[in-house]
Structure formats: structure tokens, C-alpha cells
């Protein structure tokens, strides 16, 4: 079975501090190549080097043998043909993270800096990239709801235009930097087919950005909401703002609400878009079905709904009828957490006051509806 990007991340992290070259064999060379060998074996790809070989030769060898494909993807091999004293240097990249090993006998390190990239290859054919939600409820590509949401807010304009943001835009929000594009505002026109085709090409970058950054999984509605946000905010938003890679649902929805460019002419439109993304993120994938296992750290939490508060533990939902009960619950929860972990962590709170569908679905499986 193909590995997920989360499994690949975990495997690479497990190598940190370890030496990948077998030092008992003096014929082995290329510590950085040996790291790639480990990765290929993990994902089930063939390895022509058996740890030997020069890093600078990897692009020609791997592409011609069908092991890797040219271009950036979710799981990448970055190459510098001039590094390593002329033998080249290679490292692994997933989003903004990188793993590399330098010279024989040095341990694998993460995010220690990179040299100039001369070639970028991807190993996406060896990882799980299903077009639909898999049996575990994990989505890795954009669904119909996400595409509809993006197109609703982006709109489609078949003549290029200038918003004054340093970009020339056309189609479904396709933008290129001024001075680096053949697009001319008010002059360049596209057919609808061109706009639709470019959208399908562009969206891959934003899908990859979500897949490569987070180590947690998303159901289809959650994933669609995240891709819409990324399409609007840029692929570097998560790394730039130091998002938690294993972010809980509440962390994500609370964070999304902050991206509204407050005080600008775009604020109201962004506020509406963020709210629709949050609503989609919180919507169960199928009608009344809610899978508690999707976010195991949320099996005990509180819900704000209507004018009341509900305490949830697993599949039990208890309405709190007074402010005193709510205050006592929070206090006791923090005391229990402090006893268990040494830290008085507050109970997680889900604000579903504007999300009746999600509340009704959860209440149903808890036996309240």
C-alpha cells in the first residue's frame, strides 16, 4: 500500500540524528545519496544506486528509469549538481521542510539550510494521492465543494486586470507578477476553456501546499476549506505564520478567522470567505455522520450553541443549565489535566452557534436528537 505524506514525514524524522551509510563498507560513499536510498526503500521505489553513486547523476538516472519525475510535487528530491566537492548534493523536501545528510559519518539533520537547487524531482507516484476520500476519511485532492467555493469568491474574468497588488490577474484568480508576465491588463483575453484549464493546473500547487505542510489528516470538507484558504492567502502562509503542523480543528477555525485584512477595502469580502471556509470545514462529510476518531484530541470538549453550553465526552453530550456548572466544569477539567500532565490545560471549546447542521449531527449520535 502506498505511503501517505504523513507517514513519509514520520519516517524521515525517525532518521534524524542517525547515520544512513553503513560504515563497515568503505566502498560506500555519498551520505546524501544514502538518505535518498532509505527513502526509496521506504516508499517501495526501486533504487539503482544501492547507496553508491554521485548525487549529481541522480536527475538523469532517476528520471530515465521512471523512478522520479521532473518538477516540484509533494515529495521532492532537490539536487545541486555542483555541491559535494563536485560530486553533487541531494536532499529531501516536503513543503518548507527539508532533510539532508552531509558527507560520510554525519547524521541526518532537518531544516539546516539549503544550497542552490539545480534540479527538482518529485516522487509523488510512490505516495498515496487518491482523488477521493479514502476509507479512513482522509482527503488529499480538491473536491467539488471546495472548487465551487473558490470559484464563487474568485469569479472568472476573461480579460486581464490589475488590482494594484503588483500582479496581473485573469481567469479564476490566476495571477502573474508584473514585469514577469506576458499578460497585459485590459488587453489579454482568454477563452473560458483557457481559464478552466489554467485553474486545474494552478490548483495542484495549493493542494500540494496543504498536503506537504500538515502531518494530520483532513476529511474532504476540511481539506476543501484549507485549499480555498491557501488559494486566497498563498502557499507560504502556513510556514510564514508558523502554523501548528498537527493543528486541531479548533486551532484551524480560530486561525482562519484572523485572515481578513482588517481595515482594508477587502475586509468584508474576506470576512465572508473565511466564514464560508469555516462553515465548510465544520460540516460533516455526509449528512448526519460525524466521526469522532477524525480528531482524537477532541473526544472531550465543550460546545457553544444557541445561548447554552454543552459538555461532550466521547458520545455523551450533557447540557449545562447554569453559568455555575460551566465555571465548575472548566475549573475541574484544568485541575485534572494538571494532575495528569503537569499543565492546567483549558478545555477545548467549539463555537457552533452559527452551525446548526454540525450541532444537530453531533447531538444525534449522542442521543439528544
TrEMBL record:
Belongs to the glycosyl hydrolase 24 family. Keywords: Antimicrobial, Bacteriolytic enzyme, Glycosidase, Host cytoplasm, Hydrolase. It is an enzyme of class 3 (hydrolase). The keyword Hydrolase applies. One of its GO terms (biological process) is peptidoglycan catabolic process. CDD domains: lyz_endolysin_autolysin. SUPFAM superfamilies: Lysozyme-like. It comes from the Bacteria. This is Lysozyme. Its EC number is 3.2.1.17. InterPro entries: Bacteriophage_GH24, Endolysin_autolysin, Endolysin_T4_type, Glyco_hydro_24, Lysozyme-like_dom_sf, Lysozyme_dom_sf. It catalyses: Hydrolysis of (1->4)-beta-linkages between N-acetylmuramic acid and N-acetyl-D-glucosamine residues in a peptidoglycan and between N-acetyl-D-glucosamine residues in chitodextrins. It comes from Enterococcus caccae ATCC BAA-1240. One of its GO terms (molecular function) is lysozyme activity.
